[in-house]
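Example record

One chain of 100 residues, shown exactly as stored in the release files.
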Amino acid sequence: MAMESRVDRACASICSFDGNDIGSGTYNLYLYTEDVPATVKLLIELENSGGISHGLRIGVAKYTDTHHNDWTYQAVYPATLKAFDLIYKPASGRSHAPKI
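Predicted structure tokens for this chain:
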């Protein structure tokens, strides 16, 4: 849970940590933010400084209804990420890369 604490502390006033989900070869952290670009920049800096594991993938929920009951994810980082999902099946069968 040390990584969650580092992310939570780093978020300060621009985002809030809401929990995690571990399984199916992924480790997902859930954040709320009003400033997506600043939050993405903060997470990339945290990854580059060794505060979180390398291999970070970031997706942003795009709600499809006014009640926020249904959404899709837009891939935002890394730039080469074509699609974002909560479950990935890596070629090795294992993945420790955090997804936020």
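Notes: The mean pLDDT is 84.
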